[in-house]
Amino acid sequence: MGRSCLMISTEKTKILLDAGIKLGTVEEHPMIQDSTLKEIDGIFISHAHLDHIGYLPHIYSTGYRGLIYSTKPTMELTNVLISDYMHISEPKDVTKEGLAKLHKSYKVCEFNEDVKVKDLTIRFIHSGHIVGSSMISVSDGKSTLIYSGDLNLAKTKLLEGADTKNLNAKTLIIESTYGAKKDVFPKEGVVAQHALKSIQETIKIGGKVIIPSFAVGRAQEILLMLDDYMNSGLIPKVPIYVDGMINKAMRIHRHNVIYCRKELQSRILMSDYDPFRSDNFIPVESKQQRSKVVTETTSSIIVTTSGMLTGGPVIYYLSKLSGNPANKVILVGYQAEGTPGRALKEGAKRLRLDNGRITVDIKLVVDAQHLSAHADRPQLETMIKKVNGLKTVYIMHGEKSKSEDLRESIANKYKAIVPKNLESYEV
Fold first, then answer.
1. Could you tell me how far CA 243 lies from the centroid of its own chain?
2. What pLDDT does 23 receive?
3. CA-to-CA distance for 255 and 220, rounded, in angstroms?
4. How far apart are CA 269 and CA 187, in angstroms?
5. Claim to verify: residue 62 and residue 175 sit in the same structural domain
6. Total count of domains within the chain
7. Nearest-5° angle of CA 333, CA 336, CA 338?
């Protein structure tokens, strides 16, 4: 799971689909030689999450001078997240020259627009995961494969579900984050109501709600949901503090609202109300302000990075607000193996964060991760059925047990494979 990076090659051409890292106790990188990176003719990015983009600074620091192809929102969000990653992780193998070249090497593409790289034709297709996110179709004129990236078929507050119309391919490479048979999400309204009730209870007793979130995608969905609840009176008027890279990501979403649902576009263009700039949101922009948030005696909601508790301002909030049974943590996204968020989800009462320097005593956790922007098992099965002419399915980007579970469920109809790192296949 994580560090997505695939190489597609013909006799004439080599391209990469994504270039991610895996954050956790130990940071993991793609298993690709630097000498091979210099032979790449182009890098195509499905979306701007670090497990799909985090290796880009390293690639350009090896001397790679080709282009990165992505949608406009992906380009803008990638620049923000890479800068944050550099600030927090300070990777030693990244050079200033490489980083500067990276920021100048984007080729912006639109959805459903053909891009030619030598003998390959590549196309981005809306995947419904986060703003600008894409499935990627690759064809050599004889055969076509589709790489799902991260996928969501359901409509959300921000986005329409993935565009599954007229998909034709012999080969599908699909994610399996929620690929297990048991991974069937309840309706979003049910999960949201559970989270709402928990927030109401916490505010009633004077507590603070901490919502760790990915800066891109999940945070915007959660904030728009909270804003609607507060404006309708379902949540009392308390401060909603927004900390970390979420604030920059919110501005990028506003600038790229044309990539969001038409209803959201109309809401902004046809009225004076802009949910991305709601008065209910209070950006936290300094350490002094952060200290004020935790020492206030009144209730508040804190939406902050990182979503898996691997770093960012959430470490500070957990260290200062833990141990108080009135306070609460709500997990709203996938928690990868080996992360503090996963340990918390699985029942850990004490977490050692910031390389073990901080021990957090968590009294109560509400797990609302099924507000996730990933497809659940039924959606993954639907996606597979939507691809016309499909023969072979490669199942990736999921815990091994989940990938194998999904493979077994489709093996009677398709050639289904769970590939291993460094394996090559002819398609």
1. 17
2. 77
3. 13
4. 29
5. yes
6. 2
7. 140
